[in-house]
Write a structure and sequence with these properties.
Elements: H1 3-8, H2 10-13, H3 19-27, E1 30-34, H4 40-49, E2 54-58, H5 83-94, E3 99-103, H6 109-118, E4 121-124, H7 129-142, E5 146-152, E6 155-161, H8 171-174, H9 186-189, H10 193-212, E7 221-226, E8 231-236
Parallel strand pairs: 1-2, 1-4, 2-3, 4-5
Antiparallel strand pairs: 5-6, 6-7, 7-8
Helix pairs in contact: 4-5, 4-10, 6-7
Length: 251
């Protein structure tokens, strides 16, 4: 680290659990964020301010006025602009040392496989089950840790899927791909603005811990937040040996 970085990250360096070695690992790290919306906004900003070396942001959507109630990485001047490119501009304004790669494309399986392969950690900040399962499949195939979050109305959830741990479930263990689920979207159900900030910040924290090699991750634990009562609950989730996605590694 140079003198400017020592000053910028001084509050991290004061943490015994993190210190210079942990910060160096963050500086050398590469995170992939799928979705630059409500969850991706705080996650990307915190990764950028923390000194992440490389950040790839994929989102094929554009900024809309209705996004600005909660998607804090965008502003009025960027309405109609690519969300991925808007996110890159905001991160550069805070920390120009971060190498941000905006990808304004749909997260199809081929692209996900390519981008996941390059990353050290993946943050799923998307808002559809189809995308979440596609991201999970790519992470399982490439054995990359996945930090996945979701938020709708006043309910949020977050967990880590890390197949480098033998007992860690993947996203499909929690939510099987063939399970009948009603797709709910913010556009029709609404979402409490601070909720996505809370969940996205937790995703950033888990990603930074994984990159720095500190603490205990949420692997095997699904945390859920009821923002109306501001109560967290947690359930333990074992890996499913018969999972159609991660179960393949035992065959």
């Amino acid at each position: 680290m140079n003198d400017d970085q020592l000053l910028r990250y001084s509050r991290h360096l004061l943490l015994n659990e993190l210190g210079v070695e942990g910060q160096d690992r963050i500086l050398a790290g590469h995170a992939l964020i799928i979705g630059a919306g409500g969850l991706g906004s705080p996650a990307a900003l915190y990764l950028g301010t923390a000194g992440l070396g490389t950040l790839t942001v994929i989102d094929d959507d554009t900024v809309d006025l209705t996004n600005l109630q909660r998607q804090i990485i965008h502003d009025m001047a960027r309405i109609g602009a690519s969300k991925a490119e808007s996110a890159a501009l905001s991160i550069a304004a805070i920390n120009p040392d971060v190498r941000v790669r905006p990808v304004p494309r749909h997260a199809d399986p081929a692209l996900l496989d390519e981008l996941v392969r390059e990353a050290d950690v993946v943050l799923d900040c998307s808002d559809t089950f189809a995308t979440r399962h596609a991201v999970n499949f790519a992470c399982v195939q490439r054995r990359k840790p996945l930090v996945t979050g979701a938020a709708i109305r006043f309910d949020g959830q977050v967990t880590v899927c890390d197949l480098r741990q033998a007992a860690s479930p993947c996203y499909a263990c929690l939510f099987p791909p063939d399970q009948e689920l009603d797709e709910v979207r913010c556009a029709t159900m609404g979402v409490f603005a601070p909720l996505v900030g809370i969940v996205g910040a937790v995703q950033a924290a888990e990603a930074l811990k994984l990159l720095a090699g500190i603490g205990t991750s949420l692997a095997g634990r699904l945390q859920m937040l009821d923002a109306l009562s501001m109560q967290w609950s947690e359930i333990r989730v074992p890996r499913n040996p018969a999972c159609p996605v991660c179960g393949r590694r035992d065959r």
